[in-house]
Design a protein that fits this description.
InterPro entries: Rossmann-like_a/b/a_fold (IPR014729), Universal_stress_UspA (IPR006015), UspA (IPR006016)
Family: Belongs to the universal stress protein A family.
Helix content: 40-55%
Radius of gyration: 20 Å
Number of helices: 11
Strand content: 15-25%
Protein name: Universal stress protein
Shape: elongated
Distance between the termini: 20 Å
Largest sheet: 10 strands, mixed
CATH class of the largest domain: Alpha Beta
Number of domains: 2
Order of helices and strands: EHEHHEHEHHEEHEHEHEHHE
Length: 276
């Protein structure tokens, strides 16, 4: 991990993300790319006359405020590159991450629920949906980023092998224990123990060429995958939840949703998503 990108909007939640990114940067000797999105009306960006001068003025003003904001004690000794763009945070963070070769996005989030969540969603959810690289979502000040106990939601399908390998590679520290959580659902989605074990054996045979990690699998029965993962992670004393996500968009996302986004939105624990 060499570059970590953090969208900053001056809120307490984005500062939680910036603090977490700083700790990860110190641990991995990485650079923090602090990204501030300055939304401006389209007419200011495309208009003639005095509009271009106004854009330059507001960009300079934002840069000045941003540089002042970044004068934090917890950033001492961390290489920080401030970036100010007139972009929409939820749709173009991934483009900036690609442009700068970032390895991880760290987002602060307060989460939403009920009708607001259904109709509006959150910027963090949209970043998760669009990101091609892992996204770490934090909702509070994280005191430790060593993440000694990690819980990963997994359905043991073949498409989860790649995010599983990426996650275990990222957390290959000897002090980190990675547990996999399988949630068995009721009704037509219910699977017998024999069915689940066959899928787990096939998964580890292809992913690890070994069945040694089967001892780290936890099975739970719940009415939703989200509740099963969050409750199990808390029982395990996890410091972090890892979720594979399809990043569904448009109508597919509207009707089917994304479990990874839901867990990231509702868990009080930090959540890291990996794109399938």
């Amino acid at each position: 991990m060499k570059k970590i990108i953090v969208p900053v909007d001056f809120s307490e939640f984005s500062e939680y993300a910036l603090k977490a990114a700083a700790k990860l940067a110190i641990k991995n000797e990485a650079e923090v790319l602090a990204l501030h999105m300055l939304e401006m009306p389209e007419i200011m960006l495309t208009g003639a006359g005095e509009e271009p001068q106004k854009v330059i003025y507001f960009l300079k003003l934002a840069e000045q405020r941003f540089n002042e904001f970044l004068k934090k004690d917890y950033l001492d000794g961390v290489k920080v590159t401030p970036i100010v763009k007139h972009l929409k945070v939820f749709s173009e963070v991934n483009d900036e991450a690609k442009k700068h070769g970032a390895d991880l996005i760290v987002m602060g989030s307060h989460g939403v629920s009920g009708a607001k969540e259904f109709f509006v969603g959150s910027n963090t959810e949209r970043v998760v949906r669009n990101a091609d690289i892992p996204v770490l979502v934090v909702k509070r000040d994280i005191t430790d980023v060593n993440f000694e106990v990690v819980a990963m939601g997994c359905d043991f399908s073949e498409e989860c092998i790649e995010p599983y390998l990426k996650a275990t590679q990222m957390f290959n520290d000897v002090n980190t224990k990675v547990y996999l959580i399988h949630v068995n659902l009721p009704n037509d989605r219910f699977k017998s123990s024999i069915q689940i074990e066959k899928e787990v054996v096939n998964f580890f045979t292809k992913a690890e060429r070994s069945l040694e990690k089967m001892k780290d699998v936890h099975y739970v029965s719940e009415y939703s995958v989200e509740d099963g993962i969050i409750n199990s992670a808390n029982k395990l004393g996890a410091d972090l939840i890892i979720m594979p996500t399809h990043g569904r968009k448009g109508l597919a996302h509207f009707f089917q949703g994304s479990i990874g986004e839901d867990v990231a939105n509702h868990s009080t624990l930090p959540v890291m998503t990996f794109k399938i």
